[in-house]
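Justification of resources, computational component.

The compute hours requested in this renewal are based largely on the per-chain cost of generating structure records like the one below. Each record pairs the submitted sequence with a full structure-token output. That output is archived, and it is also reused by downstream analysis tasks.
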Amino acid sequence: MEIITKSAHFTSPLYLESGRILEPYDIKYETYGKLNSDKSNVVLVCHALSGSHHAAGLYEGDKKPGWWDGLIGDGKAIDTTKYFVICSNTIGSCFGSTGPMSPQYPSNEPYRLKFPVITIKDMVKAQKQLLSSLGIHSVHTIIGGSMGGMQALQFAVDYPNFAKNIIALAATYATRPWAIAFNKVAMEAIRRDPRFNNGNYDKDEFKEKGCDGLAIGRIAGHISYLSPQSMEKKFGKAYVPTDGMFELFGRYEVERYMEYNTNNFSKMFDPLSYLYIIKAINTFNLARGYGSLYDAISRVKAKINLISFSGDMLFFPQEMEHLANMLKRLNKKYNYIEIDSDYGHDAFLVEIEKFDGIIKEMLKEIDEQKF
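The structure output for this chain reads:
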């Protein structure tokens, strides 16, 4: 599978939901597979909070592949011998698209806290601009999990004629207080970290030692991505062998796991980007701008495929089921599947074997229809 990574530069203004303007801006993106002659085989993949444009395959010298490598590739569910797959880094992120540490034109100084608040709707609008610049004005499928699923659903509402097929995993129609509360821990931990310095840190400040506030906040996030059952299965009551049981800061294996994963994360993810992205997640609401969720869903023309996970404790299956019930009442084309899983929210990244066949069938169904 060939991986092509590019960056697109836009000088026309991007009008944001807040009323502010982003100009100019860049979008980093990656493609896999070949675009067919009538451009009917495009699958747009939308990433979650900590994801990037690198959804599949291995870069030279890397040991870890893209974040959805189990799903995307030659002969896989999203078959890159058949589909032309595009994944772009969202605006606000820190992997190549314009974000808070990007230079604020015309100066070379980073935006930092002067960067405008962005929403899921803004992320979608920027991706739509990217695809238009590539001469792609409609797509076969838009797919994503968690925040990626939010983007897929927002596409279906804002641009009803753009995609034939929407697949949203482990998402919701509007972020609920439970999820916002987890994000609040991260927000406050970052803000109160002295080295964060109200956003006035050097660009490479945290590459070696990481940002303590982000690491602490990520622990809260990581807990929400798992489930009590998955933690019990993975760690049990095991204690770190080299730590003393009666040492105050002696650790259980689950504590060591949290430390290791979150400390590494805080070295590679920009804390300002994290703040802006969790703000976008917190403000997500499909109904905003349309009067009600009913009115928003009334606009949908694509087939909507919703996949939830029984053990998801961040975006509960009931939230996806509510959306499915509304689609049913409005006589929309939809499919709702709840996957039996005790892994937690991150099942959409980890337990791919439980749903890759389902994804394959959802894509095949569109292939067999004539438009």
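The first strand starts at residue 3 and ends at 10. The mean pLDDT is 96.
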